[in-house]
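Service request form, structural biology core

Requester: graduate student, group of Dr. S.
Request type: structure prediction, single chain
Budget code: on file
Notes: please return the result as C-alpha coordinates.

Sequence provided:
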Amino acid sequence: MAEPESRNTESRNTARTAATVVGVVLVGLIALFAFSDRATDDTANRLMGVRVPVIAGETLAGGSYDIDDARGRWVLINFFATWCGPCIVEHPELVELESWGADTGQLELVSVVFDDDPQSVADLFDRLGGSWPVMESPETVVAFQLRRVPESFLVSPDGQVVAHFISGIEADQVLEVVEGS
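Core staff response, request fulfilled:
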Protein backbone atom coordinates (compact mmCIF):
# COMPACT_ATOMS: atom_id res chain seq x y z
CA MET A 1 0.00 0.00 0.00
CA ALA A 2 2.91 2.37 0.52
CA GLU A 3 3.74 2.23 -3.14
CA PRO A 4 0.64 4.17 -4.44
CA GLU A 5 1.15 6.89 -1.82
CA SER A 6 4.78 7.27 -2.93
CA ARG A 7 3.67 7.63 -6.56
CA ASN A 8 1.13 10.31 -5.60
CA THR A 9 3.82 12.26 -3.74
CA GLU A 10 6.16 11.99 -6.71
CA SER A 11 3.40 13.12 -9.08
CA ARG A 12 2.60 16.13 -6.89
CA ASN A 13 6.27 17.08 -6.67
CA THR A 14 6.65 16.80 -10.44
CA ALA A 15 3.51 18.88 -10.98
CA ARG A 16 4.74 21.55 -8.52
CA THR A 17 8.12 21.70 -10.22
CA ALA A 18 6.52 21.99 -13.67
CA ALA A 19 4.14 24.71 -12.44
CA THR A 20 7.05 26.64 -10.91
CA VAL A 21 9.06 26.44 -14.15
CA VAL A 22 6.08 27.57 -16.22
CA GLY A 23 5.46 30.43 -13.78
CA VAL A 24 9.06 31.62 -13.94
CA VAL A 25 9.04 31.47 -17.75
CA LEU A 26 5.77 33.44 -17.90
CA VAL A 27 7.10 36.12 -15.54
CA GLY A 28 10.23 36.38 -17.69
CA LEU A 29 8.22 36.76 -20.90
CA ILE A 30 5.96 39.37 -19.34
CA ALA A 31 9.00 41.35 -18.19
CA LEU A 32 10.59 41.02 -21.63
CA PHE A 33 7.52 42.38 -23.41
CA ALA A 34 6.82 45.03 -20.79
CA PHE A 35 10.28 46.55 -20.77
CA SER A 36 11.50 46.05 -24.32
CA ASP A 37 11.30 48.72 -27.03
CA ARG A 38 10.35 51.51 -24.62
CA ALA A 39 12.55 54.15 -26.18
CA THR A 40 14.22 54.82 -29.50
CA ASP A 41 15.39 51.50 -30.88
CA ASP A 42 17.77 52.27 -33.72
CA THR A 43 19.25 48.79 -34.04
CA ALA A 44 16.07 46.74 -34.27
CA ASN A 45 14.83 48.02 -37.59
CA ARG A 46 16.65 47.27 -40.84
CA LEU A 47 15.60 50.65 -42.28
CA MET A 48 17.94 52.68 -40.08
CA GLY A 49 20.48 54.47 -42.25
CA VAL A 50 18.96 53.42 -45.56
CA ARG A 51 16.70 55.10 -48.08
CA VAL A 52 13.12 55.39 -46.97
CA PRO A 53 10.72 52.95 -48.65
CA VAL A 54 8.20 54.33 -51.11
CA ILE A 55 5.27 56.05 -49.46
CA ALA A 56 2.87 57.20 -52.11
CA GLY A 57 -0.82 57.04 -52.70
CA GLU A 58 -4.20 58.45 -51.87
CA THR A 59 -4.82 60.10 -48.52
CA LEU A 60 -7.97 59.56 -46.46
CA ALA A 61 -9.00 63.13 -47.33
CA GLY A 62 -8.97 62.27 -51.05
CA GLY A 63 -5.68 63.94 -51.93
CA SER A 64 -2.41 62.29 -52.78
CA TYR A 65 0.94 62.00 -51.04
CA ASP A 66 4.40 61.04 -52.30
CA ILE A 67 7.36 61.19 -49.92
CA ASP A 68 9.66 61.98 -52.86
CA ASP A 69 7.96 65.39 -53.08
CA ALA A 70 9.36 66.15 -49.60
CA ARG A 71 13.00 65.84 -50.69
CA GLY A 72 15.01 68.60 -49.00
CA ARG A 73 12.84 68.58 -45.85
CA TRP A 74 12.65 66.34 -42.81
CA VAL A 75 9.68 63.96 -42.77
CA LEU A 76 8.19 62.30 -39.72
CA ILE A 77 6.24 59.18 -40.66
CA ASN A 78 3.84 58.24 -37.88
CA PHE A 79 1.97 54.94 -37.63
CA PHE A 80 -1.11 55.13 -35.39
CA ALA A 81 -4.66 54.01 -34.68
CA THR A 82 -7.52 55.88 -33.03
CA TRP A 83 -8.11 52.97 -30.62
CA CYS A 84 -4.50 53.17 -29.36
CA GLY A 85 -4.11 55.02 -26.04
CA PRO A 86 -0.44 56.01 -26.51
CA CYS A 87 -1.33 57.26 -30.02
CA ILE A 88 -3.88 59.65 -28.52
CA VAL A 89 -1.34 60.79 -25.91
CA GLU A 90 1.29 61.56 -28.55
CA HIS A 91 -1.11 63.35 -30.94
CA PRO A 92 -0.65 66.84 -29.37
CA GLU A 93 3.12 66.36 -29.79
CA LEU A 94 2.56 65.70 -33.48
CA VAL A 95 0.39 68.83 -33.73
CA GLU A 96 3.27 70.79 -32.16
CA LEU A 97 5.71 69.32 -34.70
CA GLU A 98 3.37 70.16 -37.57
CA SER A 99 3.23 73.76 -36.37
CA TRP A 100 7.02 73.97 -36.01
CA GLY A 101 7.44 72.49 -39.48
CA ALA A 102 4.99 74.97 -41.00
CA ASP A 103 6.80 77.88 -39.32
CA THR A 104 10.29 76.78 -40.39
CA GLY A 105 9.59 74.90 -43.63
CA GLN A 106 11.93 72.15 -42.38
CA LEU A 107 9.60 69.33 -41.35
CA GLU A 108 6.44 67.69 -42.60
CA LEU A 109 4.39 64.88 -41.19
CA VAL A 110 2.56 62.00 -42.79
CA SER A 111 0.64 59.35 -40.89
CA VAL A 112 -0.25 55.82 -41.84
CA VAL A 113 -3.34 54.59 -40.04
CA PHE A 114 -3.27 51.02 -38.83
CA ASP A 115 -6.44 48.91 -38.86
CA ASP A 116 -8.89 51.74 -38.34
CA ASP A 117 -12.02 53.38 -39.71
CA PRO A 118 -11.48 56.55 -41.81
CA GLN A 119 -14.34 58.33 -40.01
CA SER A 120 -12.70 57.64 -36.62
CA VAL A 121 -9.50 59.19 -37.97
CA ALA A 122 -11.37 62.29 -39.17
CA ASP A 123 -13.11 62.59 -35.80
CA LEU A 124 -9.77 62.32 -33.96
CA PHE A 125 -8.18 65.05 -36.08
CA ASP A 126 -11.27 67.26 -35.65
CA ARG A 127 -11.09 66.81 -31.89
CA LEU A 128 -7.30 67.02 -31.33
CA GLY A 129 -6.09 69.05 -34.30
CA GLY A 130 -3.68 68.41 -37.09
CA SER A 131 -3.96 68.66 -40.84
CA TRP A 132 -1.12 66.52 -42.16
CA PRO A 133 -1.85 63.77 -44.71
CA VAL A 134 -3.07 60.40 -43.43
CA MET A 135 -2.91 57.28 -45.56
CA GLU A 136 -4.19 53.75 -45.21
CA SER A 137 -1.41 51.61 -46.65
CA PRO A 138 -0.87 47.98 -45.64
CA GLU A 139 2.15 47.90 -47.98
CA THR A 140 3.80 50.70 -46.01
CA VAL A 141 3.13 48.92 -42.71
CA VAL A 142 4.90 45.84 -44.08
CA ALA A 143 7.78 47.84 -45.62
CA PHE A 144 8.49 49.51 -42.27
CA GLN A 145 8.26 46.24 -40.29
CA LEU A 146 5.73 47.79 -37.94
CA ARG A 147 5.64 46.04 -34.57
CA ARG A 148 2.91 48.00 -32.85
CA VAL A 149 1.42 51.44 -32.77
CA PRO A 150 2.48 54.10 -32.24
CA GLU A 151 5.75 53.98 -34.11
CA SER A 152 7.40 56.85 -35.95
CA PHE A 153 10.34 57.13 -38.33
CA LEU A 154 12.28 60.32 -38.99
CA VAL A 155 13.61 60.74 -42.52
CA SER A 156 16.40 63.23 -43.25
CA PRO A 157 16.20 65.74 -46.11
CA ASP A 158 18.28 63.38 -48.29
CA GLY A 159 15.78 60.53 -47.81
CA GLN A 160 17.61 58.44 -45.18
CA VAL A 161 15.78 56.94 -42.18
CA VAL A 162 17.70 58.40 -39.22
CA ALA A 163 15.52 57.71 -36.16
CA HIS A 164 12.95 55.16 -35.08
CA PHE A 165 10.61 55.96 -32.19
CA ILE A 166 8.58 53.20 -30.54
CA SER A 167 5.69 53.60 -28.08
CA GLY A 168 5.07 57.29 -28.59
CA ILE A 169 7.19 60.37 -29.03
CA GLU A 170 7.62 63.85 -27.67
CA ALA A 171 8.21 66.81 -29.97
CA ASP A 172 11.53 67.56 -28.24
CA GLN A 173 12.88 64.11 -29.21
CA VAL A 174 12.29 64.81 -32.88
CA LEU A 175 13.51 68.41 -32.76
CA GLU A 176 16.69 67.31 -31.01
CA VAL A 177 17.56 65.13 -34.00
CA VAL A 178 16.46 67.71 -36.59
CA GLU A 179 18.19 70.68 -34.99
CA GLY A 180 21.27 68.66 -34.04
CA SER A 181 22.03 67.69 -37.63
